[in-house]
Design a protein that fits this description.
Number of domains: 2
Shape: elongated
Strand order of the largest sheet: 2-9-5-4-3
Order of helices and strands: HEEHEEEEEEEHHHHHEE
CATH class of the largest domain: Alpha Beta
Number of helices: 7
Strand content: 15-25%
Radius of gyration: 20 Å
Largest sheet: 5 strands, mixed
Number of strands: 11
Structural class: alpha+beta
CATH topology of the largest domain: N-terminal domain of MutM-like DNA repair proteins
Distance between the termini: 30 Å
CATH superfamily of the largest domain: MutM-like, N-terminal
CATH architecture of the largest domain: Alpha-Beta Barrel
Length: 280
């Protein structure tokens, strides 16, 4: 958490603004940077980061998998929020004109020439940032985007059959397909009526097509609802009110009424309907 829909929601907010455009970072030039916890920075060194980032202007902002990709004047800033990361845009000055103090869990901040600042807050300290010349240095190992039209039914079926793995761990492998995590994998598998322990090479063409369509449907719905807000870490989403199985152990399946069960698959809590998602 956050997964693809939550990261996409943050990217759109930081790119397009919140209506009054005060949150948009596009066109902002960095005048200084505050590295409040050095291990947040995966690359380069803190000294190199400070020397390189000042003077850079944010040209565009995209998402790749669970990464936010800020394209700068001649560099790229990549941020992975991991378990508890979040980004906010705020005034760099308090009401009295003094510098606004940082919050307890703020780890990295970029101050812009318009007196706004972009702040990376991360309670659990798992999130990371990279300042690189070539984004492929970090993103090169990611699998295809699940919402990309180039990921055809035939290609997806071939990808499944090149592996011999249980479906849920495979779908959460970012080298297989980029962006899925625990929540949306559970939701997609239920919609596709597939068991999370089913083996990928045993999936039929019809099941494969159904699974790809289900992945796209739950991700699309998640994006439309600005992601899911299931704890104190991520704010603003509404998809948690429409979960099919995730977090609903003991509640009736929305399709057949059977109580939802919780399993542990690949050390991750997993929610299924034992009737709709029969194994074997």
């Amino acid at each position: 958490m956050p997964e693809l829909p939550e990261v996409e929601t943050i990217a759109r907010l930081l790119r397009d603004g919140s209506g009054d455009h005060e949150t948009s970072t596009i066109g902002c030039q960095v005048t200084c940077a505050a590295l409040l916890w050095e291990r947040t920075l995966a690359a380069p060194t803190p000294v190199e980061f400070q020397n390189l980032i000042v003077g850079q202007t944010i040209r565009s902002l995209t998402r790749r998998g669970k990464f936010l990709v800020f394209s700068l004047t001649d560099l790229s800033l990549l941020i992975h929020l991991r378990m508890s990361g979040d980004l906010r845009v705020e005034s760099a000055s308090a009401a009295a004109g003094e510098p606004r103090p940082y919050e307890k869990h703020d780890r990295l901040a970029l101050v812009f020439s318009n007196r706004q600042r972009l702040v990376f807050n991360d309670t659990r300290k798992f999130g990371r940032a990279w300042l690189v010349r070539d984004p492929a240095e970090v993103l090169g190992g990611l699998g295809p985007e699940p919402l990309d039209d180039r990921l055809t039914e035939a290609r997806f079926f071939e990808m499944l059959h090149r592996r011999s793995r249980q479906l849920k761990p495979l779908l959460m492998d970012q080298g297989f397909v980029a962006g899925l995590g625990n929540i949306y994998t559970d939701e997609a598998l239920h919609l596709a009526r597939l068991h999370p322990l089913a083996l990928s090479e045993q999936i039929t063409p019809g099941q494969s097509a159904r699974l790809l369509a289900a992945i796209r449907e739950v991700l699309g719905e998640g994006i439309r609802r600005n992601g899911a807000s299931i704890d104190w870490v991520y704010r603003g989403g509404g998809y948690q009110n429409h979960f099919r199985v995730y977090g609903r152990r003991g509640s009736p399946c929305l399709v057949c009424g059977t109580p939802i069960q919780r399993l542990v698959v690949g050390q991750r809590g997993t929610h299924i309907c034992p009737n709709c998602q029969q194994k074997g």
